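Morning. Coffee machine broken again, so started the prediction first thing and wrote up yesterday's gels while waiting. Chain of 471 residues, entered below exactly as on the submission form.
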Amino acid sequence: MSENTLSTLLPIAGWDPKRAADVEFCGGADPILPTPFRIGETAAASLAAVGLAASDLWKLRAGRGQKVGINTRHATASLRSSKYMTMDGKPAGAERHPIMGVYPAMNGRWSYLHCNFPNHRDAALAVLGVEEEDGEAVRRAVARWDALELEEAIIAANGAGGMVRSIAEWARHPQSAAIASLPLLEIEKIGDSPPEPLPEGSRPLSGIRVLDLTRVLAGPTCARTLAEHGADVMKITAPHLPSIPAQEYDTGHGKLSAHLDLRQESDLETMRELVREADIFSQGYRPGTLARRGLSPEDLAALRPGIIYISLSAFGRKGPWASRRGFDTVVQTVSGITDRQGELFPGAEPGPQFYPVSAIDYITGYLMAFGSMVALARRVREGGSWLVRLSLAQTGRWLLDRGQVPESELQNVPQDFTPEEIQRWSTSSEVPDGKLGHLAPVVQLSETKPRWSRPSVPLGYHQPAWPERSA
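Came back before lunch.
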C-alpha cells in the first residue's frame, strides 16, 4: 500500500512516522495498469512526500501545516502524462522513434536500442553497420551480435542501450551491488552559510528561483513539480542539444525557457550570473561534465553560498557504470523489469516488454523535488549549501524492492483510465502553438492549491534573465 511505501521516505527528511497521518490516499491500489510492479502505490507515495515537503515549507512561512491528498489512480496516470496531452483537441503526446526497441540477438538473448535522439540513433546504426533507418535491417543486424558485446559496443560509440537481463542476473551484476550500497536519495551539506528565510509569498515556494539544466523526463519533471508549488523555474538548454517538442510541452508547465551554450565563455558567464541569484540548481549531465565548466556542486557553493544543488545520474555515483549514460528504458532493460513484464504481459510479438508508463523517470522527478524541498527547509533552519543526489537506477531498485502484485490478481487489468477520469484530472493552458490540454497537478493541499502560473513554451522562448520574484 502507498502508506507503507511512504514510510520508507519519511526518514530521508528526518520526519516522525506520525507525519504520514497528514496524508489521505484514495483511488485504490495496484494493479491499476497491466504490470506486476507497484507503480501506482510508489508514485502516490512519492507525490505524498512532495506534498509533505511543501507543507513543511508552508509551516515555515505561515506557521501552519497542511493536509495532503493523493489519488493513486491520478498519480499513476501522471507517469505517462504525455499520452493525455492534446493540442487544439487533437492528440499531442510524444511518440517513440520506430527504430527504438528490443531486438533478438544471438543465443536467445535480447538487445535494447535507445534511438529517440538522433545522436544515439546514429551511434546504434553505425555499430550495426546499417546505413538507413530500416527496422528490418536493424533486426537482421542485431541477430548477428552477442547481446553483451553489442551493449558494450554501443556504449563505446556514445550510444545508449543494453542487454536484457533477468532480475536474478542483475542482482549478481557489480553495478547492482554498487547501487544497493547507496540510499535511495542523499541529502548532504556541502558548505556553510547563514540561515535564509523564505522570500515573501503566498505559496510554499513563492520567490524561490530554480535553474533547470536537465533533459528528457526525470529532471524536467522535478522542476515542473517545484513550479506547481510557486517556484520561479528557468529551463536552460541550447540549440545544438537534441530534444523532443512534445516532451518539452509535457514537462514545461510553469517554466521560463532560455538558451545558453555553455561551450561559450560569454554564455557561461551569464549562467554564473543566474546562479548568483538562484536558490536551486538542477542538473542531469553525466558525472564530471559540468565540473569541466566550473559548475560542480563545490563551485556553485562557493559562487552562491546557500545553493541547493540537485544531481541526477543514470546509474548512481559508485560502481563500474557510474559514468554510463542511461534512460528509464535502459534501466528497465538491464535490471530485469522488461524481462518480467514480458513474461506476464507479452506483446504482439514474444520478448521483453516495457512498463506501460515511464515510472522510473517520473517518480525520480518527484523524488528530486522532494529532496530539494527538504534541503531548502534545512537551509531555512540551519543554513548551508546542500547537495541532493539520486539516480534512475536507485529509483528502479526502490520500485523493485516494493515487491510485485500476486499473479492471481493480474487478470483483466484495464489498459487505460476511463475518459471521464482523464477529463476530471485535466486542465488546459494557452500556449504559443494553441490550446494545450494536459493533466493537472496530482498533489492536493488543504490551503495552497498546486497550480502552474506560466504555460509551457518552446525551448529558448525567453531571455536568460530572472524576472521579479513571484509572490
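The radius of gyration is 21 Å. Going to sketch it on the whiteboard this afternoon.
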